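## tool: complex_structure
## caller: assistant
## args:
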Amino acid sequence: MDLEEAKEFKERCTQCAAVSWGLTDEGKYYCTSCHNVTERSKEVINTGAIPNTKIQAISRGLKRKRKLEKGWDWYVCEGFQQILYQQAEALKTLGVGPELKDEVLHNFWKRYLQKSKQAYCKNPVYTSGRKATVLEDNPSHSDWDSEPDLLSDFSCRSFVESGTDSQPDGRLQKPFPISRASQSETASICSGSLDGVEYSLRKEKGIVKMTVPRTLAFCYLSLLWQRETITLSDLLRFVEEGHIPYINAFQHFPEEMKLYGRDKGIFAIESWPAYEDIYKKMIEIAKFLDLPRFPDITEDCYLHPNILCMKYLMEVNLPDEMNDLTCQVVKMTGIGEVDFLTFDPIAKMAKTVKYDVQAVAVIVVVLKLLFLLDDNLEWTLSNIAEKYNEKNKEDKPWFDFRKWYQVMKRSVDEKKQKWEEARAKYLWKSEKPLYHSSIDRAVVYKRREMVVSLQKQFSTLIDSAPTVEKKSPSSFQFNWTEGDSARTCFHGHGLQGILKKKGQSMTTKNSLYWLSTQKFCRSYCKHVTTYEESNFSLSYQFIINLFSFLLRIKTSSLHEEVSLIEKRLFKTKYSKTKKKSRSRKGRKY
Amino acid sequence: MSDFSEELIRSKTEDDQEESCVFSGTGMSFPWLQKHIGTVATGGKKEKDFAQTTNACLSFIQEALLKHQWQQAAEFMHSYFQILEDSDSHKRQAAPEIIWKLGSEILFYHPKSNMETFNTFADRMKNIGVMNYLKISLQHALYLLHHGMLEDANRNLSHAETWRYGEKSSSQEVLINLIQAYKGLLQYYTWSKKKMELSTLDEDDYAYNTASQNMLNHSWKTSVNLCALIQTPGVWDPFVKSYVEMLEFYGDQDGAREVLTNYAYDEKFPSNPNAHIYLYNFLKREKAPREKLISVLKILYQIVPSHKLMLEFHRLLRKSEKEDHHKLGLEVLFGVLDFAGCTKNITAWKYLAKYLRQTLMGNHLAWVQEEWNSRKNWWPSFHFSSFWAKSDWKEDKALACEKALVAGILLGKGCRYFRFISKQDDEVLRKKIKRIKKSVKKHSIVNPGL
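## result:
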C-alpha cells in the first residue's frame, strides 16, 4: 500500500470526512482514518511499462475534467436575473398584471445593471481592455423617460421572453465578457459561475451588490410602482408559504447552469426574509437606482390607509363601523395625503411608508380611543354590551370586546400553533446540494442521499394524506362566518354602546387616553422607541401580538408605528405635557 | 421520558440499571438554560431561520414523544433529518446520535413500524459517521434480543465486533468489549440450554458425547468474549455471573475464584454489593472456612447493612470463637433493624431477643448499651409505639411477642409496647408471655438492680 500514490485522490471520505487515502492491494482507495474502502480505484498507469507517455497525459486530463462539473458559462448577475424572472412569473400567477414583469421590473433590473456598471455602460466592471457592445450611458440624465431603450439587448430579451433561455447564442455577445480567472482546479476556491469568486470578493463603495434578499426588494419596488394590491407583508408571507420562489430558487436554474463553490455563498439562503430588512433594502435600491417619484398613492389605491384599514378590520373581525373612526384618525394625522404616501427616492430624506404596518397602527389607536385598553374599561364596556345584547336579541348587536377577544384568542393561538408547526417542518435543503469545493462534493451528495432515504423511510409512517396541504395564496388569513360560534363574525356589530351623541356628532364615551410612548429616542440609533411588553396592559399586549403576527413583524416595530401615529395625533400634547404620565384627551367626532 | 436505549437494556438485565449509564448521559435538563446557551454560542449573531426551525422541530419531536404521539413525532422527524445537512459542522456531527435515539424510539412504538423498518433504520444510521457504529450496533442487537431474535442479534454483534475503526479506537474500546461480552452472554445462553438438554441425556448415550463436546466449544468461545470486559472496571453482574457458572461447571474453581475476588476487591471497580454476594455464595459452595466467609460479608455489611444475608452473617459471627465477632454480631442485628424494610422481619427480632439475653447473660451489658445509646432516641417511636404494638399483635402475634421481649429488655417493663403485649390475654400465648415477663424482669437493662 502506498500512501504517496493515493495523494491524487482528494475527495472526502464518505464515512468520516477525512482526506487521507491509501491504496489497497487491489488498487482501490481506502481511508486511512476509518478504513472505509471506496468503489473508486486508481487507474493503473505504469509509465515504465508503456513507453507512450501520452496515455498518461490523456488519462490525467480526463480525470481533471471530471472533478469540476462543466456547464454553461454564466455570470452571477444572470443567476439573479433568473431568480427575478421566476419571482415575476410567480407574481403573475398570483394575478399581478403582466406589465410588472415586462416593463417595470425589467426596467429596474436594466437600470441596476447599468448603475452597478455590469452592463449598458462604457466601462463594464471586470472588462479590462475588452469592450462589449455598450450603450451610451449618460449620467446627467437621471430622468426615467430619457432612459435609452434597451429592449433590444440580449440580456433583456432573455429576461422578457423566457428566463430559461440564457444559452450563449453565437449571434449575440455576452454583455460583459470576461475570461475566467485562472483557477487551480484542485484549489478550494472555485465557482460554477464565471465570476462567482470575483463577485464574492468584490467590495466597491457606492455599489449596491445584488443578493437574494434584494431580489424581493426589487419585486416590492415594482409592485409599489404598479400600485398593486400586495403589501410588503403579503409579499413576504407568500414567500414563506412558497408561492414566490426564494429559498433554493437556484434549484430551478437551467440544468446546465452549474452552481458550486462560491456560488453557494451567493445563492444559498437559510433564512426567510424579514420585514424590516427588505424594507431597508428596498429604499437603498431605489436610491441607488436613482428612481424618480413613484406614481401617486391616492384615496382609491389599495395602499391608501383608508382602504387598508378596511381590509385589516375585516381580517381581524372588527365591526365595519370602526372604519369611520379610522378614516377620521387618518384625516387628522394627515397620513392619507398623497405627498405623505407617495414614495420619492430622490427626495432629500428618502423614506417610504410601511403601508400595512401603518394601517394596522391606526386600528390600534382607534381601539385605544374606544376601549382605552387599560385592562379595565374594555371589560366594563363589554359587560354593558353583553347585557344589552341579552335584552335586545332582535336588534343589531353591540360590539362585545370580551366575546371578540375570546374568539380571536382561540383563532390566533390555533393559527400560530399551525404556523409554528409548518415552520418546524419546513424542508430547507434543495434537491440539488451545493458544495464548497470539489473535495466536498462526494460527501455532500452522499449526505443528501442519506437524508432522502431516511425521509423516504419515515414517510411510510406518516398518514398518506398530507397534513399540511398547500394553502392557496390569499391576502386574507382568517375567515369569519355568521353562525359558527367558534368563528363568530363581528363585522355587522354596532358601536352604539361605546359612542354617545354630542350635538351633531358622535363622541366616544371614554374620554381618557394613554400614550404608548412618553419619550421618543433622540439619539442617532434611529429607532423610535422601545417596547418592553410587561410595562403594558394585557389587552394592549394581546392587540399588538395579534397584529404583528398577522403581518409577521416584530411587536416592537408595530408599537413604534403606533407611537408615531399618536405623535401626529396628539402633537400639541406632546409639546406641552411631555412629562405627564397620562394624557387626558377627549376626542370629538 | 425514558430513553430508548435504557428501555432496551432494562428489558434485558432488569436488575442492574447502573449499566444504562454507559450508553446515555441522561440527567437533568434545563430547556431555558439551553436557550440561553444557544444565544451565547452564536456570539450574539442572529441565528439563521434554518437553525431556529430545526431546533423548534426537535422540541416538537420531544413533546410528541412525551405525549406518545408517535404519528406526529414521525412527521416532525421526517423534517428533522435535514439537520444532517446543516452547514454547522458541530451540529451536523452531533445529529446522528440524536436522530438515532429519537428515531429508534419512534420506530419502537409506532404502530406502522415493524422489525424490517427498524433494521433498515439501524443499518442506515450505523453508517452515518464512524463514531456511532458500535453504539448503534449494540443497541440494535438489544432491540433484536428484546424481540427474541437471538440469531440476528448474534450476527449483528459479530459484525460490530469486526468493525475496523482506525484511529478512533481508544475511545471505543469499552464499547468493543461490551459488544463482545454481549455476544458472550448470548453464547452462554445457548450453552446453558445445552446444559439443560445434557442433564436429560443418559451418560452412556451416544448423543451425550457430542453434546458435551458442543458445550465445551461454546464455553471456550464465551470465556474469550467475556474475559476482556470483566477486566475493565465497571458493573458487569450478568456477565460475571455467567462466566463464573461456566468456569465452575468445568471445574476451574481457581479461575472462578480469581475472577470473583478481582471483581469484588479491585479498587478500580465501583463499589458493588453484588460482587461480594457472588463471592460469598461461591465461597459457601466451596465450603470455605468460616473466617473467610466472615471477611467477605464484613464488606457487604459496610455497603448494605440491611441485606438479607446479614442474618446469615450474624449466625456466622455467633458461631465464631472470637469475642469481637460476638460483639459485631450484636451490631449487625441492630443494624438490620434500623431499616424500615426490615421492621417486620420476625427472624431478625427473634435473633435479637435471643442474642440480647445471651449477651447480657455473658456480662456484656456495655455492648448493649453502646448500641442502644445511639438508638434510644428514635427506636421507641420507630419500633415500640403503642400503634405498632396494636398492629403487630393484630397481624403477627409471634412477632409481637419477640418485639415485646426486646422492648422490655431495652426500655424496661414500663414501656408501652411491652405493657400492651403483656396485658393481652391469649390462651395459646399465655405461657409464652409469662416467660417474656420473667426474662424482662431478669435482663432488662433499665434499673438492672431491681
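## assistant note: DSSP finds 24 helices and no strands in chain B. Residues 1-128 of chain B form one domain. Handing back to user.
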